[in-house]
Amino acid sequence: MSLAARLNRLLLYVALTVAAVIIVFPILYAVSISLMPPAEVNTFPPRFVPSTPNWANYADVARTVPVGRYLLNSLVVSAAVTLGQIATASLSGYAFAFLRFPGRAALFALFMSTMMVPWEVTLIPNYLTIRSLRLLDSYPGLILPFLATAFGTFLLRQFFLQIPRELEDAARIDGCGRFRFFWSIALPLARPGLLTLGAYTFLNTWNQYLWPLLVTNTRLMRTVQIGVRFLMNEEGMQYHRIMAGVVLCMLPALVILLWGQRYLVRGLMAGGIKG
Amino acid sequence: MRGFRRPFLTLWALVLILALLAGCTRSGGGGGAGSDGEFQKVEIQPGERVKVTFWHAMGGVAGEAVDRLVQRFNSSQDRVEVEAVYQGSYDDALQKLRAAGPEGPTIMQVYEIGSRFMIDSGMITPMQNFIDADGFSTEDFEPNILGYYTFDGRLYSMPFNTSTPIVYYNKDAFREVGLDPEQPPRTFEEFKEYARKLTVTQGGETRHGASIALYGWFFEQFLAVQGAHYVDNDNGRSARATKAIINSPEGERFVNWLKEMVDEGVAINLGRRTAETQAAFSSGRVAMTMDSTAALGNILAGVGDKFEIGTAFLPRPEGANGGVIIGGASLWITNTRPLKEQWAAWEFVKWLTRPEVQAEWSIATGYFPIRKAAYDEQILKDWHAQRPQFITAIEQLRSSPLTTVTQGAVIGTFPQARQIVEAAMESVILGQATASEALAKAAEEITKGIEDYNRTTQAQ
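Predict the joint structure of the above. Result:
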């Protein structure tokens, strides 16, 4: 490698490192604040590293909020919603991409139009439905309204459209049924799409605040975001405790994101180009 | 009281929409609200354990204190069993209340500016009904605190968490520039003068003399300090308010005073949230600020041993003789639950007002005790001995004359009004409008909101 090329590469890495540090900084700073005693949070010039790690903040959070239970609740709900959405979106996406039936375009347009309805509008009707089904304060109440979305259908349809129709024709000639084609050929080919949708849905559900707050009433049915909100006081922010809570609640989501990240980037780009 | 209100403006809008919807569907649910004289006490027998649900918006240390008190109450007797449920911010909780209908709570905590809305909702039984039927005495209660929640001479809800704003200042900074740390500024002029002296630039870094959040609550306070009303009909207390009158000389004087200090560079504008000014004060970057009395504990912890903290009354123009308005929230008993449950709720509310409970609540949260007898409790005396800064808060509250000015304004659209005033203050500080222009426009907007609200609620 020539000197110029090496220098180029070095510069590139320096630039990338700087960018990475800038992007990771808020998370590192949150971790750092979560370990500070209160008087160190507000200082000038600002401190970025606690003088001695103050683990008591985490103990405080664990005492105030049943963190383990909230993580479990969020995990159950997010996982169920994610699996459910992948199931419904892949089936409907496949139908819109491969099946020919009368009114397909109109039906698809109708599907898409629901994306224009802001979720705040459906919040109360959904609440009343869940209430009349007597599902308040239960996992089904937290999960049911989010099992199918137009966005997921749209996203997976775009992926299925990339699969050549000839492939289906060939499979059909060899005696492959519709479901078998869907299951053994179309789904594996759309794997990046499934994972993209999965990661996106998981994070969205994980971050829900208002819906879980509305439909749950007992302390033990609450989810992590409500737990974090409970750490905030109306009269002033105790950032050290809030950040300790945030770090605890962020960890699982962060793991999922790191794992699903490459699919997320690849998936959204692929969908976008074809779109 | 503060903090998370802004992003939830849309929620407030939703709450109002729901109020209209609910108004259509549940007529006839408003029993109890207006039917006085008939209200009978329901006795609860020992061992009955009548279940009462209590929805609140207290997070952090205050939330923990609520849980502790509820536990204590439940184990102290076997007639009533309270379940406290945290429902997010004040706005979240209110939205949920509207949606819940019959599944709602027996006791509901609502912020002070939601009072008009609660009365108009037809969902509540006035606290006075229980007080009268039970022969309960409120003689020993702080009149300035009861005043806010008293409408037409009747107490509608029980004050729960109460605070007022005070000035916090850095005593070390005072000493450093030769000011007497025991003589905080008392007038607008003095405050500006002090801010000038306290503004010090060293090594390219400036410590500003003051920073005051552009917070609608403060605007209301400074009107009251000057003896001015916020809306007509005596702040909406002699009759329903019909228009905002914030573009008064008093309103303009306050906003201009802020602007002059910012323009001169002796105060710094850190936006609308007190979280920001609190952080700047705690780090020593600002020598004087304004914040809730209930923020004292948080500020003490945030400052640690970096410097000594003093507290003072809100400054006022020379000769002004008004006072402060309380902020915070109160407890409402709903009429959507059976009468027996409402009486069980009253048992808990009554227990909360006990002097020893009030003392404990005040120590845990920094809110005012609502009755005077609490100050005789030894634990509260000891606590105040360690935190003499809190004495200022009590003195300021007690020296406020109780009039319709310091009782505070009552309008159904207060959350929006606050935002409108904040936007107006911001536009003046940023030099986009003069105080008289901005406040006139704000008054007009608020008036329109009040008109719409009155039309929809009176139509029912």
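The mean pLDDT of chain B is 91.
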